Each structure stands twice: as C-alpha cells, then as structure tokens.
Amino acid sequence: MEKQKVILDCDPGHDDAVNILLAGKNSGIEVLGITVVAGNQSLEKTTKNALNICQYLGLNIPVYAGCGQPMIRDKQLLAGDIHGESGLDGPVFEPLKRKEEAEHGVQFIIRALMESDGDIILVPTGPLTNIAMAMRMEPRIIPKIKRIVLMGGCYQLGNVTPAAEFNIIADADAAHVVFTSGRPITMVGLDVTRKVLCYPQVVERMEKIGTPAARLFVDLMGHFNKSQKQVFGWEGGPLHDPVTIASILDPNLLVTKPMYTEVDIRSVQSYGRTNCDFFGYSHRAANADVAVDIDVDRFWDLIESGIRAYGS
What we know:
This protein is an alpha/beta fold. It has twelve helices and twelve strands. It is an enzyme of class 3 (hydrolase).
C-alpha cells in the first residue's frame, strides 16, 4: 500500500497522543512532521508533550512549535479541566532529551507544501491557527493541499457551549479561513467521536498487549477517562483525535455527508458553531464531507493494530 503523506497539527492532549501513536509506525502513513499549537494547554506545554510522546515511542519525527494564541482574539482558550495542568496528566516520562526544531511550525507547513507534489494531507486535531496562518502567509500553498482531515466542530451538540466544539471556538477565525479555502475537507466532529468511548473493557483489551506503547495508552486513558467522567459523566472518554488518522487508514471507517459548512464568527451565543447545512436548505455547494457515523469495532481494531506496531 502506498504511504499517505501527512502533517499532524496538534495540541497534545491525551487523544492527540494516541493519534501520534497510531500514525507514527503505521505502514500506511508517512508523518512528515508534527506542528504544535496552543489549545489543550499552552504552546510551551503542548510542544513538550509532543516531544515526550515521540521520545517515549522512539519516533524520529521532527516537532515544530507553532502559534501560541489565536489569530485575532487576545485570549487563548485552554482545556486544563480535561487534560490537566500539564496537558498530558497521567503518564510519567523520562527526562526529555528531544528538542523542537528551530523553524516555526507555520513556516514548516508552508515549506513542506511548496516543495511537495500536492500529495500531503493536513491532519489538524487542535485549533486551526497554524493552518490558517500558513494559508494567509502564503496563499500559493492552498491548491497544493491534497485534503484536510480535521477533528473539530459538530452538526449537533458542542462541548464548550451548546453550539460549539473546543477546537473551533478556540480560534473560530482560523476555522473560517480553513473552511472557506476551497480545499477538500473531511470534518470529523463530535457527532462521530462521541461514539468511540474508551470504556474500561477497551483499556483492558489494549493493556493485554503488554508493550510500552500499550502501557502509554493505559496511562493516558487513566487520567482522560477520569476527567471525562467528572465533566461529562461518561464511563469512557471519547477518543476524538485518532478518528482522523484511522479514517485515512480505512476509507470505509466513516460515513460522511457533503454539506455546506459555515463557521459562526459573529454571534455571541453561538460563536464558534459549525453550521452544517445537513438538508441543503441554502442550496450552496458543499465545502466539507461531514462525518455522520463510524464503525466503532473497526476503529478499535485499528487502535489495537497501531499499538501492536511498536512491538515489545
């Protein structure tokens, strides 16, 4: 199988960590780089978390620090209630020896795309600031983006407000730039990621693999599941971000529906909402393939395969 070239743009984050794990040694994925954005925690912390994950898993993938605040708004929204003070509470890592690259994450995205043959998929699983800034700084990259497979948004219920999902509301202006870019977008939103709840039996299944990667997964889910139960009352945390890479690996994983999707950047009550025209009321051309269903069993099989790829 030909490897899909991807750039992971993330804000680790427990589910981001599993997404890096899933992509890192998969025979179907070539990770060109990891760009980091503030979101689940501050940029300093999310960058450190990305480096810790790569070091622990033995992944020789360059990590680039990107934007530490939204494009326009003056305050960065963080998710410490879910991901803890470090942004990755739970696992205990060895002293960090890895360092981020000197090049800014946005500049890396621009350089990689400009040097490409139009064969790179962008996989953002945090606020879309880095992607939008790259588009604004160098518009020539836009037609070179093969596809954007993003975790964010919802066509039903948000998780920060009744209307808005975290990654979108954290920088709705950036999301507006991305959704109006004209590039193919797959929107993996809360509507499907809330179906992949990491119940205790899933954790036990992965723990039996008995590898360092399996132990990392168990340690991550220990904190993540606890915080999700405290905040949302669920017995298992929704593993949002890995649905992106999983859907690239298995094109039959998701059921998607083309929809015209508009990001609300004007209102107060619904700021950050992804208004997805499910029924085509607007008669406007669809600009996103919005995920509406997922094969949960296939998803967990992909996660298990991803963990097993690291061996003993």
